[in-house]
Amino acid sequence: MRAAVMYGAGDVRFEERPAPRIVQPTDAVIRISATCICGSDLWSYRGINQIKEPTPFGHEYCGVVEEVGSAVTSVKRGQFVIGSFFASDNTCQHCQAGYQSSCQHRELVGGAQAPLLRVPLADGTLVALPEVPPSELIPSLLALSDVMGTGWFAAEAASVKPGATVAVVGDGAVGLLAVLSARQLGAARVIAVSRNPSRQKLAREFGATDILPERGDEAVARIKELTKGIGADSVLECVGTQESLMQAIQSTRPGGSIGYVGVPHGVALDGQQLFYALVRLHGGPAPVRRYLPNLIDLVVSGKINPGKVFDLTLPLDQVAEGYRAMDQRRAIKTLLRP
Amino acid sequence: MRAAVMYGAGDVRFEERPAPRIVQPTDAVIRISATCICGSDLWSYRGINQIKEPTPFGHEYCGVVEEVGSAVTSVKRGQFVIGSFFASDNTCQHCQAGYQSSCQHRELVGGAQAPLLRVPLADGTLVALPEVPPSELIPSLLALSDVMGTGWFAAEAASVKPGATVAVVGDGAVGLLAVLSARQLGAARVIAVSRNPSRQKLAREFGATDILPERGDEAVARIKELTKGIGADSVLECVGTQESLMQAIQSTRPGGSIGYVGVPHGVALDGQQLFYALVRLHGGPAPVRRYLPNLIDLVVSGKINPGKVFDLTLPLDQVAEGYRAMDQRRAIKTLLRP
Known about the structure:
The structure is a homodimer.
Chain A: E1 2-8, E2 11-16, E3 28-36, H1 41-45, E4 55-56, E5 61-68, E6 80-82, E7 86-87, H2 93-96, E8 107-108, E9 116-119, H3 122-125, E10 127-128, H4 138-143, H5 147-157, E11 165-169, H6 173-184, E12 189-193, H7 197-205, E13 210-212, H8 216-226, E14 232-237, H9 242-251, E15 252-260, E16 268-270, H10 271-277, E17 280-283, H11 288-300, E18 312-315, H12 319-327, E19 334-337
Parallel strand pairs in A: 11-12, 11-14, 12-13, 14-15, 15-17, 18-19
Antiparallel strand pairs in A: 1-2, 1-4, 3-5, 3-9, 3-19, 5-6, 6-10, 7-8
Helix pairs in contact in A: 5-6, 5-11, 8-9
């Protein structure tokens, strides 16, 4: 098969790779219906994360089960499934506590930008739909594999409550879906920070009530102004830089909560600054598996349409252009069809 | 009057000072029944916090109202009162949200190691008892002014739930009272870290179920071992160093909570380490005022006896010896009687 391989900064190739096969009896191999490029893939594409050897890329996927290992009992050939970027057994104590991204047997799923994908721990990782969904639902279902679940985790980690005032830092796909998640959890006011017209428009469609074009300290000042000097009840940090985290901390009221889901790069939090801010901090790799059943229901019933974040769709063999478009911020998020 | 003044590292003097008087109409002046020395006072005594000019010290107090300003309505001359180290109006939005230590009009109370003390914002800050308590209750009531409320906040910030497994980092007075607080909130297992026999004994009296003499990484390994590799549900960090915070982060299970109340000194938290730990972090200057009514009830009804942390009682004029004893860890906490 032909699949995406990252060779180094700015160098993604679509080339011949061995097709994945069952390695462990708990594996499944699925035929990808759609995959996509993650904001976190750009850390490598931009050379911020080093690529040591050519690496198959992609960790977001949905598709039809092609084959299962001998120990797999809960999914079978022909079913349409979605899974998270972390394979998890869904039975260990961390999984049972809802933290499948810390599963004691977790494995990173890699190489999803391909027609076929091996998924370890298939019983714990994959959630099957009752039937193969219509094609117009595929983008929204694909979004549940990472970006929507991550936005949802940001909102839950920031304890978004009905009636709350929420600010979202970051206008990438996760930030936009964090807006949607905050509204789904009942936020009365959602302040999004963006100066990009197409992202502003999508933020409004997802329920943002206020859009700020300011950045950094100026954005903090505006959020304080909009909240009469108090600060937001919940701030959803979806970038992962020192500036974005500081912006989140300074925008939150004492006793308020920050959910942070952007993988931190070069971030060091000053202990005293955090201490005197009196904020709550929770975040990390989203336990996407926890949210899949509920989010699948919301998509299938038409209550949410997170697939709107895909503003560029390409055939998989144009994956390199997909990376370029996101790197240059011409696209929010690229969907790839094998 | 004569009162304690810090001149610099290791230099506390008991000397003549002007008696405090009403400055604002919202002030009260109280006659101190007992005061004490805080672990945080030692940061200055040890030269870690710089003293720029001779400074009256002490911020923990209880006593009898001597005089009130013309605007004070809720406390009156002759009443026995307790207040927090942060004066707060108890009416602003931060106070109403339970974060009186972030009151929009907060003022640090200073100079309590004295016979008389000016307390700003008396209506918001002071809680009066129905009658002047018997002298044997004074140590426990004094403890509510900071150290007990701070331990309680550590337990609440770490979301201690009935049945939980809790670890406490730090065997100072706050750490010991964090043990007591965790048990009051229903923790089934409380692991205290201490290698000092008298502190170990007090930790057991306050309800610790396990005492570890290990430190740092070894303590983390033991806590992991005691929790079958999972980590504690809640960790109460009561020191404020890089090592103690890292110990807390590494001892907590994914999705578990850390309450940190030791003022951080030289602490920088690595963003990625925190991210992948998936812990919840909350802490800061304790909103002691929030807890005063409940904690006064628990003391007066004999349910808790936090005054046990005072293992040295001195007349106020021996305040310098009180600092020395705590600095040298001969005393857990020194109570001073004017």
